[in-house]
């Protein structure tokens, strides 16, 4: 089993910054992509950023230029640096890891961390 634990969420003023972390543990031989998704009430969970094991990243247009994703493969940890935060960034942020096993890729999700941007 694979567990993902997020940290770093909280309350921040507009224009402020937060850094989210997600550490994976358990039966892990390798991890393909890792990513951050967010969800607000009444909306579908949406991709914020994703990064491959090789370091190639994909950033959603809504946060491009403000958010940066990175990972530390030795620690099985992915980070999301969030700058110039806006009220519309308020959401529960979820970490996902894609773990290959016997030729099949399985997705594992964290429990989520709340990010609230408000003055």
Written overview of the protein:
The chain is mostly beta strands and 119 residues long. Helix content is 0%, strand content 56%. The protein has no helices and eleven strands. Strands 2, 4, 5, 6, 9, 10 and 11 form a seven-stranded mixed β-sheet that branches. It is elongated, with a radius of gyration of 14 Å.
Main attributes?
seven-stranded mixed β-sheet; four-stranded antiparallel β-sheet; 119 residues; single chain
Largest sheet: 7 strands, mixed
DSSP summary: helix tally? 0
State which percent range the strand residues make up: over 45%
Report how far apart the termini are.
40 Å
Structural class call reads mainly beta
Radius of gyration: 14 Å
Number of strands: 11
Binned, the helix content reads under 10%
Overall pLDDT: 97
Query: Which residues sit in consecutive blocks of at least 5 with pLDDT less than 50?
Result: none
N-to-C order of helices and strands? EEEEEEEEEEE
Shape descriptor reads elongated
Please specify the SSE layout and strand pairing.
Blueprint: E1 2-7, E2 10-12, E3 18-26, E4 34-39, E5 46-51, E6 57-59, E7 67-72, E8 77-82, E9 91-101, E10 104-109, E11 113-117
Parallel strand pairs: 2-11
Antiparallel strand pairs: 1-3, 3-8, 4-5, 4-9, 5-6, 7-8, 9-10, 9-11
Task: Please outline what is shown here.
The protein has 119 residues and is mainly β.
């Amino acid at each position: 089993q694979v567990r993902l634990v997020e940290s770093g969420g909280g309350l921040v003023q507009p224009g402020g910054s937060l850094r989210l972390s997600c550490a994976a543990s358990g039966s892990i031989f390798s991890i393909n992509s890792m990513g951050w998704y967010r969800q607000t009430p009444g909306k579908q969970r949406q991709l914020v950023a994703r990064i491959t094991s090789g370091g190639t990243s994909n950033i959603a247009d809504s946060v491009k230029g403000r958010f940066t994703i990175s990972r530390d493969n030795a620690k099985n940890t992915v980070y999301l640096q969030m700058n110039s935060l806006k009220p519309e960034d308020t959401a529960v942020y979820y970490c996902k890891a894609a773990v290959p096993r016997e030729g099949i890729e399985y997705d594992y999700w964290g429990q989520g961390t709340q990010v609230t941007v408000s003055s």
